[in-house]
Design goal:
Helix content of chain A: over 70%
Structural class of chain B: alpha+beta
Structural class of chain A: mainly alpha
Distance between the termini of chain B: 111 Å
Number of domains of chain A: 1
Order of helices and strands of chain A: HHHHHHHHHHHHHHHHHHHH
Largest sheet of chain A: none
Number of helices of chain B: 15
Number of strands of chain B: 6
Strand content of chain A: under 5%
Helix content of chain B: 40-55%
Largest interface: A-B, 13 and 14 residues
Radius of gyration of chain A: 23 Å
Largest sheet of chain B: 4 strands, antiparallel
Oligomer: heterodimer
Chain lengths: 443, 410
Amino acid sequence: MATAKKDPKKSPTGTKTGTSAAKAEGAAKKTSEPDDAAARVAVEGFADSIRLGTESSAMFAKAGGLAVVCLAVSAALGASEGDGFKRWSYGYIAAFGVALAITAGSLFWVCLQHLVNAKWSVVVRRIGELFAANMPLLAILALPVVVPVVLGNGVVYEWADKTKVASEEILKHKSGYLNPGFFLVRMLFYFGFWSILARYYLNSSRRQDETGGSEIAPTMTRVSGPAMIAFGLTITFCSIDLFMAVEPRWFSTMFGVYFFASCVLGVHVTLILTLMWLQRRGRLATTITTEHYHDLGKMLFAFVIFWAYIGFSQFMLIWYANLPEETAWFKQRFFGGWGAVSWTLVFGHFVIPFFGLLSRHIKRSKALLAFWCFWMLAMIYIDMYWLVLPAINVEPDVRAMDLLALLGLLSALVAGAAREAGKKNLIPTKDPRLEQSLAFENI
Amino acid sequence: MSDSHEPQASESGPAPLHGLLAEYTTTGDILRASKKVRDAGFSRWDTFTPFPVHGIDRAMGIRMTILPWIVLGAGLTGLGTAILLQWWTNAYDYPWLISGKPLWSIPANVPIMFELTVLIGGVTAFIAMLVLNNLPMPAHPLDQVKRFARATDDRFFLLIEAADPKFDADATRALLDSTRPHAIESILEDRKTSDKLPTGIIYALVIATVASAVPFALAAKARYTKSRSTRIHLIQDMDAQPKYKAQRENPVFADGRSTRVPDPETVAVGELHEDDHFYRGTQNGAFARTFPPTFRVDETAMLRGEQRFGIYCTPCHGFGAEGNGMVAKRAEELAQGTWTPPSNLTDQRIRDMPVGEIFNTITHGIRNMPAYGPQIPTSDRWAIILYLRALERSHAAKIADLAPAERTGL
């Protein structure tokens, strides 16, 4: 699969990343088509910087190790509670929400770039593709959530427990949708569909790296239309199934969009931080410029507002109508300790980052942008925590096992992406729009 | 312009120099030229390109615009205006309770806060952008320059104004020459275009200003005068119908009234309520002690009664008819002192009460209890009484009433 192996004209895989650049240069010069984008990549000395090389396996080992340790310790702490993993599961689901937001968000983002034929983002797109390709990994990480449901264990999702369902009219009424069998079918469908789509985008994009086929980009664009519709539906229902169904008596038709806001925030945070890390490691040093960060920052800013818009819309409809079956959910979150968390979200997830990210200078400053990315990452987690945990805790109570689960899942994503990146290109070198992306400037 | 001194002197001679225009064929050229002019320290100069050229801001040394600050200020003004507006109209000037929310309720105000922030921010951005760019500019000396037309097509221009303190006809031309332009042209002041507003526009503005006062004048007049004529009714809808409404004058009848009193002894179809027992709960002038024969006492009636009782009576009297419904409980909680509690309907007094009297109470209400006759159909009223009787019976149940099997279950 690797470029170097398939192309007989190239020298065998070099030991240093530097040689791969030389090869790319050679390949670019040989291509007869006027694809000077690739040539630019090779010639203008991005050379040694567009691959992770050996760093990939090192990162995989480090992050993967951390993930395993964190998740194991978290699970051990969960077991020590002696409640059949009940408390642990809630914390895990909240953390899983963040991981899902990042991964599904990446898939959405890649799809979006193709849909609108985006040019500025071409140099960033491979990173999104890599994170989206974590989907199968995420499906495995979803097992602690899905398996108990399938076994009819209702510790978290009450509707999984037949006796509980039989005893309550509301659960009985909803059991046509909320039942273990159908839940499993849906989960298989969501993660199956996302995995295939993510793999399709990564593979097509890499095939383009090799062959430079000019038909590949338009095909990806054509796929992205229907894929986007399917994504919209799957992310809506998946978030309802995984997070809203924690409290099966409550419902909100806006829940899917609300989670989607986290997805889009998640992907931009991930892209920005990953690019910064890569650049610090000397990768893509000149390829990614302030202009790209600026645009990513704008999207981050826009979706800070989007989150508030959706969050408030959901709240206001429920608050205004004041129907007991809907308000109960907010009541639980608006008083006592959870009330403080709600206010933290209002200010920390919206007001403060709104003013924080408003200025162009901030979005163009790496250090400040990085600060806001970490800030928003924390907020995405607090948001998920606030969605899920009040179902079990009357007062907020953060445990080490919750945070370890989060750290474990995030490390797993990093490990997955690093492994997938392998020794291959970190930018789609033969994308027909690459030239424009390299030269991109905000007016 | 008779009082303007300078141009007047040369009005007849050749027009004074406005500036020097250099033409370039590529973006690279104009960028290089801009840097040179910038470094030479000029301040009154500009470039003209058919499309936004990347990096021209830096090449020209243009400082960051203050537009964002203006928009921020406008946005915050919109926000503040929205809050004040809603506070003043809804909570202060004309307090109006909506949906039981507080008079001044921030969540309810948020949509307007958002809208006004965006509206005033957006409109200000648009206007301020024009103003900061010196737009609209009806005429400019460059309009007279033929080659300048290509600034919207494929050429790039750089103009240094003669008004620039650093401007010196020869030295500046030499500077521009050194940027290797495609051409250099001296631009003269525009003598063709008058700088006066066209009279047509002046008249139009005056008329528009005067006309815009008319609606206000009319509104003011309407506020302080009285009129006997009907209001202006632009959209008729179904307002005017060829029929006589209750209180209208009617020329057909001698007394001129539209509403007619029915002839004595008239009875509408189906409204002949002859059966005193059924319709009034009385028999020979006294409250009946039995259910009327036309009312069938069976299980259907009992179930109907239970349901209707649940709907109409439980809010006050409670599900057990003990006078402890939600309304009663809430009233007690408020403890305002004016509340008459609903009766406990399982009291011996009510149990002894003839069914006809209870029927009468439901129909006409009693003291603090409103009349339910207009709401509850006659047979339903009897059904409610039937159910009430069953409730009363259940309150007086004794252990002996139960079947032996049920007794052990207790």
